[in-house]
């Protein structure tokens, strides 16, 4: 499995993402490579950032099939580059965010989303794009700046109670299930679950399990929905990222 991390991270940063594997039971026959993008944005706080994150994620995974990978998981609930990757790959490309929302609807009737304040726009945009706004009881955010590198390390005592309080508000809003709107929140999932006693969808670990399930069923995305590219511009993508990565 190839897990594409949507930010430029060093080895410790990648290990914090790899820690998501500890939240799920997977076949011992599966191996996971966590690959950061080679150039990109520091956070996804607007549509400008979203555009360049898409380009960086596409470049990082567009040749995954030729590299021998069996599936691609996108390590962001923003589902960066899922559609274009599905146009150039036959192996499963997992849309982590959309999959998390749909899992929530198999566990309950109405879900709420937990996130950071700067990412509210993306959660609302996804609900509109995926046609799920009427299934979402609320989108709640805490007033804090997300840290895509260190995640919650050293701030657990401050952040964990704030996310629990926000989740309690979600229940008051009518939610029976919670979706964490970022793979950077994986460290708080078990804490919120224990505090509230309702299902909490941890998107990253679920994406790995979903990829395993799709491979076991012999399924991948439909090329009617995602037509194959007649002229894949993979070299162009690599050249674009090469120029920026070199400059940095």
Description:
The chain has 248 residues and is an alpha/beta fold. It folds into 2 domains: 2-95 and 205-247, Rossmann fold (3-Layer(aba) Sandwich); 97-202, Rossmann fold (3-Layer(aba) Sandwich), CATH 3.40.50.12500. The chain is built from 9 helices and 8 strands. A 4-stranded parallel β-sheet has the order 2-1-3-4, sandwiched between helices. Strands 6-5-7-8 form a 4-stranded parallel β-sheet, sandwiched between helices. Strand 7 (177-180), helix 7 (189-196) and strand 8 (200-201) form a beta-alpha-beta unit. Helix 2 (47-61) crosses helix 9 (234-247) and helix 6 (156-173) crosses helix 7. The radius of gyration is 17 Å and the shape is globular. The two termini are 28 Å apart.
């Amino acid at each position: 499995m190839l897990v594409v991390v949507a930010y430029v991270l060093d080895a410790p940063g990648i290990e914090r993402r790899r820690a998501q594997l500890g939240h799920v039971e997977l076949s011992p026959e599966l191996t996971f490579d966590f690959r950061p993008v080679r150039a990109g944005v520091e956070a996804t706080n607007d549509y400008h950032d979203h555009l360049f994150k898409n380009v960086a994620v596409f470049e990082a995974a567009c040749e995954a099939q030729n590299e021998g990978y069996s599936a691609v998981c996108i390590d962001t609930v923003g589902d960066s580059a899922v559609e274009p990757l599905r146009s150039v790959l036959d192996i499963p490309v997992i849309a982590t965010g959309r999959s998390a929302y749909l899992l929530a609807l198999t566990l309950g009737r109405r879900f709420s989303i937990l996130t950071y304040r700067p990412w509210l726009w993306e959660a609302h945009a996804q609900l509109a794009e995926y046609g799920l706004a009427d299934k979402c009881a609320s989108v709640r955010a805490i007033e804090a700046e997300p840290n895509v590198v260190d995640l919650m390390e050293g701030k657990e005592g401050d952040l964990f109670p704030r996310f629990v309080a926000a989740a309690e508000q979600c229940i008051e809003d009518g939610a029976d299930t919670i979706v964490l709107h970022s793979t950077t929140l994986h460290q708080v999932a078990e804490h919120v679950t224990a505090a509230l006693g309702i299902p909490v969808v941890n998107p990253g670990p679920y994406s790995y399990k979903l990829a395993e399930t799709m491979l076991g069923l012999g399924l991948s995305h439909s090329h009617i929905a995602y037509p194959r590219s007649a002229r894949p511009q993979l070299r162009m993508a690599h050249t674009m990222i090469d120029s920026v990565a070199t400059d940095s």
